[in-house]
Amino acid sequence: xxxxxxxxxxxxxxxxxxxxxxxxxxxxxxxxxxxxxxxxxxxxxxxxxxxxxxxxxxxxxxxxxxxxxxxxxxxxxxxxxxxxxxxxxxxxxxxxxxxxxxxxxxxxxxxxxxxxxxxxxxxxxxxxxxxxxxxxxxxxxxxxxxxxxxxxxxxxxxxxxxxxxxxxxxxxxxxxxxxxxxxxxxxxxxxxxxxxxxxxxxxxxxxxxxxxxxxxxxxxxxxxxxxxxxxxxxxxxxxxxxxxxxxxxxxxxxxxxxxxxxxxxxxxxxxxxxxxxxxxxxxxxxx
Length: 287
Hints:
Blueprint: H1 6-25, H2 27-35, H3 42-50, H4 58-65, H5 70-76, H6 79-83, H7 86-105, H8 107-110, H9 113-126, H10 135-141, H11 149-175, H12 179-187, H13 195-202, H14 206-218, H15 230-246, H16 249-275, H17 281-285
Helix pairs in contact: 1-11, 1-16, 2-7, 3-5, 4-5, 9-11, 9-16, 10-11, 11-15, 12-14
């Protein structure tokens, strides 16, 4: 393994993450799952992301996803599996990925040597992801690697995304933030993810959101205006630093040259995805 700084690891993650994340915002996502009978919105999201677990109940999904209201999860899981089995959802998931990557990147790019190289590099990095305490990563790691390079690349970026996300949950638990407090303090950092959007998407009421703000004020994390205090800003910085530390192993395994190359290749793909509206960040920020 080659020493990689957390900054370099995060830079590589940020380069490939948009390719993965555009799956959730693509029109193909809700349309395809609606065709299976899954309700658009939370049910489609929860089923698509939880399908690697198999036919689990709401408790496992609530624990792994962390910041979703338990009642929202319980409304859709396990009812979703009565509509479409996890195996059917997983088959549909790859069709969604194929459709949106083809649309956003074009057939020439998804069949290019650069895409195949990106898949090889990302899969090599994922070899060093650890399973203990990483439920979403571990569930996805049990799935077969798709043959098509662009699908293999998406699969690898999913492994890397869930590995980092699982580590982030560990950091949040260590920091003493529950799922809702994590959302509230995150929006206070100035992110594009706004309270109105997250309340709706994660199932929290305005009253529950306000109560979490009060808890964070009592801890000195937020001020009276709902802005991060110096203590709160340091808490969020520490959480991100812990997340980086827990996520550096895949990139150390890939090495400096491989990490730099993956950053370059994936960054070019992500630039096209973002330019094509694959992640509607401006729209999210308005809600």
